[in-house]
Amino acid sequence: MKSSTHGKNTLATEITNISSHGIWLLHCESEYFLSYEQYPWFKDQPVKAIIHLEEPQPGHFYWPDLDVDLSVDILKHPEQYPLTAK
Q1: N or C end of the chain, less CB within 10 A?
Q2: Is residue 9 scored above 80 in pLDDT?
Q3: pTM for the predicted model, two decimal places
Q4: Which residues contact 7 (CB under 8 A, 6 or more apart)?
Q5: What is the pLDDT of residues 19-28, one digit of tens each?
């Protein structure tokens, strides 16, 4: 007897915490901290805008209410992407 195939992965990318220092993003069992110092676009934004997160492609994150695009590579290696908003 053969087991049925596994179902679709239902673990979604999500914002798991918003603090006075930044936000936490959970993606594929990895959690990333986005400090307001390094990612200033999220500071002083409404919770609704921060948690409204889309993943148009795997590992590419888009916040439509804030017009912010980030990728897993940016979160893993921020030193390779020195430009930040002023």
Answers
A1: N
A2: no
A3: 0.80
A4: none
A5: 999 999 999 9
Residue 85 lies in a domain: no
3-state secondary structure the chain: CCCCCCCCCCCCCEEEEECCCEEEEEECCEEEEEECCCCHHHCCCCHHHHHCCEEEECCEEEECCCCEEEEHHHHHCHHHCCCCCC
| CB count in 10 Å sphere of residue 67 | 8
Query: With contact defined as beta carbons under 8 Å apart, do 23 and 42 qualify?
Result: yes
Our CA dihedral for 49, 65, 39, 14, rounded to 10 degrees, sits at 50
Residue 86 belongs to a domain: no
Q: Which domain holds residue 60?
A: 14-80
**In this structure, how many other beta carbons lie within 10 angstroms of the beta carbon of residue 53?**
21
Q: Is residue 2 part of a domain?
A: no
